[in-house]
Structures are given as structure tokens and as C-alpha cells.
Amino acid sequence: MFDLVHVWVIRQLTLGEFSSRQAVLWKAMAMAAKIAVFAYGLNVIAHFILVGLGLLPYPLGPALVVATMLTPPVSFIVAVIAYSVVGLAIYDLGVSRQRFETLSRTDMLSGLMNRRAFLETFEAARGSVALILLDIDRFKSVNDTLGHKAGDDVIVRTATCLTHVLGSDEAIARIGGEEFAVLLTGQGTERAMEIAEAIRASVEEMRLEISGRPVSISVSAGVSEGVAELGFSELFSGADRALYLAKASGRNRIVHAKELPVMPLGASVPDDGQVGIDRGRLSA
Asked: Which domains does the chain have, with CATH numbers?
């Protein structure tokens, strides 16, 4: 019996989490009402005990009237104030934690997912998935000739193209300096290539003017498909090599991992020094 009462009291006193400040106030008033009833009951019981012991210094009737008039409102007001202060503190901590979690999963420049959030999204995926890796062509020359502010503008505009084509609810991430990734679930080869091509065309058609001069931007992309349960590394490796081939084949194009040539055992793909892809940067 004592354990049941103990659990009930703890449940009543636990504030939990709140969705808004208004929810805090409603919870505080509900809890204060329970406390007022509980305090009034204890007060009445205490009076009867004192009467039984012959210790009550005044008549029981007037004493109960005073207890009824004072105990519930006073205990209610005190409880509302106390619970509101604590509840609002809990709510503010929850909001701060949520903002921190959002910041820790967001790339500050592009507003897209960062690498950590993208990997977590992939780990939660199930079934057939497709990965699109995109790289801004000749990005280094933009930074070298127009400055890093121009490079930032190019990244932001490219991210805008991605969200315009896919929507803000899709798994889109900036995984490196000028590199982006898209995770598709249950789309199939044809649809994945259509989406990749739509992104490429959107970036190519983008009208960007920096310091009064027009700047042409393009992206190359590699696409690979697989089953999410098999892990990220294999899927990434195929998309990465397809992206490498797209770069080596002239840029501003899409290559599917199925188009990769079969390499002899022990052979390696030559690096022309122009791709700038860090293999293993996302290895799980």
C-alpha cells in the first residue's frame, strides 16, 4: 500500500516536458488544485486529531471555517507560483536543448543537414535506397578568382537549387566544402537519375552575378543504389567512383555506378589531379 501511494505521489509531482508556456501554466494550475485539496484534507484531519487529544485551543466549528477559507486559496497560490517557476525553467531548458540539437545537425552556411545528420538518417533508412553525390565543378577557381565570399554564395545558391528540386523534407546534406549528398528511398534507378539530372539542370540554369559579373556554375554527380541494411560504405564507394568518372569525363554530367568500367584485379583508377574528392571522408 505504501509503495502504491509513493508511486502516485511521485507521478503527481513530476512535471515532465512542455510544448509551450501555456502548457506550463495549465499544468501548474492543475497540480496546484490537487495540492490545495490535499493540504485542506490534512488540515481538517489535523484538527480532528487535536480535538481527540484535547489540544485544540478553540472550538472545532470556527476552526474548520477558518481552515476552509485560508488553506485552499493560500496553498493553491503558493503551488501555482512554485510550479510555474520550475515548469518554465524546464520548458526553457527543453527549448535550448532542441535548438542545440538542431544546430548540431545543420550546416550553418547552406542550411542543409551536416554529415552527422545525414549518416544518422541513412542508418535509420530501410529497404531500397539511392545515393546521389554532387560536387560543384571548378569550385576552387571561383574561390581563387572571386574570393571566398563568392564561393560561399555559390554554395548557398546550389543548396537552394537542391531544396527547390527535392523539397525541404528530403535528406539533403552538405558533406564537404563544395560537396553535397542526397538520399532517396524506394525510387528506383530511372527516378534517381531523373532527380540527379533535374538538380544538374537547375544548377546550370542558375543565374548568378558576383561583383557585377555573371558566373556560370555546374555540378557533376555520381549515383549508386543498394539496400540500406548493407551499410553506407559500399553505397558511398559506388557513388564516389561514379562522381570521379563524371568529373574525369568533362564535368557537368551524371554517372550511375552501373556505368563504371570493370577494373582488372589490383588496378587503380588514375587521378588527373582535378577531381579533389576525399575518398573515405564519409566512411562509416
From this structure: 2-104 (no CATH), 115-259 (3.30.70.270)
